[in-house]
Design brief:
It is a single chain. It is built from 1 helix and 10 strands; from the N terminus they run ββββββββββα. The protein is mainly beta. The protein has one domain (10-130): Immunoglobulin-like.
Length: 163
């Protein structure tokens, strides 16, 4: 078994909530009170926990990932309901598509609102590997090269030598 090692996140709340996650492949633990960047595998299983200090009553929340431009936002989970339970836990598997570039910052946001207040957190993730491992990177580079070649070809007649 790989020992757990704390890494990074940021939690801002007015109700005393807590949150954490453990990655199965490495044993890495993210406690939502720390800061920094978390290097994650492209696919893994994550065990998560969350709690609030008192019965939440009516509640709602979500977890989203904000990908680098131009990709936008990806909703991971949403929830709502009524409860007297003060904690929850679960296991989620993920497999990020190849178009999501490795080696660049991705922000994961979580937000839970209930009768006790608002619990919001974020963690900066980075997929292990190089940005060059994404097929989108190669498509963008190819498009840039073709555009550059077209500009050179169009500009060439403007620079003819006069004899």
């Amino acid at each position: 078994m790989v020992p757990s090692r704390p890494v990074s996140a940021e939690l801002t709340n007015d109700d005393g909530c807590t949150a954490s996650a453990t990655w199965a492949s490495s044993g890495m633990v993210v406690d939502a009170t720390q800061t920094g960047t978390v290097i994650i595998p492209r696919a893994d299983t994550v065990q998560w926990t969350g709690s609030v200090p008192a019965a939440p009553g009516d509640y709602q929340g979500s977890v989203t990932i904000r990908l680098p431009k131009p990709f936008g936002e990806l909703v991971i989970d949403e929830w709502s309901g009524t409860s007297v339970t003060t904690s929850n836990q679960g296991v989620e598997e993920y497999d990020l598509p190849a178009f999501v570039p490795a080696g660049v910052p991705i922000t994961l946001y979580g937000r839970h609102v209930d009768a006790n207040g608002v619990c919001a957190g974020r963690v900066t993730l980075q997929i292990d590997g190089s940005p060059m491992s994404s097929p989108i990177t190669w498509v963008a580079l190819g498009g840039t090269a073709l555009t550059g070649a077209a500009v050179v070809a169009l500009a060439r007649p403007m620079f003819r030598r006069v004899v």
